[in-house]
Structure formats: C-alpha cells, structure tokens
C-alpha cells in the first residue's frame, strides 16, 4: 500500500511539472502573439485585455492537461507522453485560432489586445483560445 501511495505521489509530481511547463509555454505563446512584454502589460500596466487572453490560455492548457491525465493510459510513460503531446498540440491549435481570428477581423489583434482600454475583441480572442483548448480536450476523450 505504501509503495502504491509513493508511486502515485511521484507520478503526481511529474504530471504537475509537465502541466506547469506547458502553462509556462502558454505564457510564452501569448507573449509572442502580443506586442510588448506580457509581464509588463499585465503586472505593470494592468492591461485587462492581455490578462483576459492569458487567463483563457492558462485555463485552456490546464483543461487539456487535466483531460489527458484523467483519460490517461494505465502505463505511466504513455500517459505522460500523451499529456505532453496533447498539451503541445493544444498550444499549436490556440496559436492557429489566434491567427485565424486575426485574419478574419479588422486591425491587428495583438495590438488590440495590448490597448489600454477594454476591448470586446479581447473577450472574443479569449473565448477562441479556450474553445480551441476544448476541441483538443474532446479529441483526447
């Protein structure tokens, strides 16, 4: 029983690390998609548009990681690999959705997201990011 507990705890730590790394990659993705430094936009300038987009991205990645772990293979290595792969696929799909939305709408979406004034496009972009993540979740399940 103790061995199972320790094995489960170790696996939780490893899955947690993978999840945090994927969420950090999501932060990097949003930073690349938006002009300027995301850290400054959110934490210094208190930009609500950028914060909303990042929040949707982080929740989306968390949903993908959760779904991948929850539906994971019995084999830990396969489960870890699928979690990593689906997390990366999710990031790719989110970036693709951002670029598609940018092409379909007037102006530059990244610049709109960085605007000081709240903009409805930030909500649409956030929903697009989270929706892309849910599509990946459905593919996993």
Please name the defining characteristics of this protein.
elongated, mainly alpha
Characterization of this structure:
The protein has 141 residues and is mainly α. It has one domain (2-140). It is built from six helices and no strands. The longest helix is centred in the first third of the chain and has 32 residues, at 2-33. It is elongated and about 55 Å long. The model has no long low-confidence stretch (mean pLDDT 93). Belongs to the UPF0719 family. Pfam families: DUF350. It is found in: Cell membrane.
Q: What class, by secondary structure content?
A: mainly alpha
What is the radius of gyration?
17 Å
How many domains comprise the coordinates?
1
Query: What is the beta-strand fraction?
Result: under 5%
- Biggest sheet statistics: none
The averaged pLDDT comes out at 93
Report how far the terminal alpha carbons are from each other: 30 Å
Helices and strands, in order, run as HHHHHH
Count of helix runs: 6
Family: Belongs to the UPF0719 family.
Protein name: DUF350 domain-containing protein
Subcellular location: Cell membrane
Organism: Micromonospora inyonensis
């Amino acid at each position: 029983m103790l061995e199972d507990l320790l094995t489960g705890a170790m696996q939780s730590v490893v899955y947690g690390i993978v999840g945090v790394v994927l969420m950090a990659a999501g932060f990097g993705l949003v930073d690349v998609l938006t002009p300027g430094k995301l850290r400054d936009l959110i934490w210094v300038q208190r930009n609500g548009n950028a914060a909303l987009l990042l929040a949707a991205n982080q929740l989306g990645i968390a949903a993908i990681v959760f779904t991948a772990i929850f539906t994971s293979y019995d084999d830990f290595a396969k489960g870890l690999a699928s979690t990593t792969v689906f997390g990366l696929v999710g990031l790719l799909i989110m970036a693709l959705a951002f670029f598609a939305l940018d092409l379909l709408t007037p102006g530059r979406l990244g610049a709109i997201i960085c605007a000081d004034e709240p903009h409805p496009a930030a909500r649409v972009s956030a929903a697009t990011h989270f929706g892309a993540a849910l599509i990946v979740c459905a593919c996993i399940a």
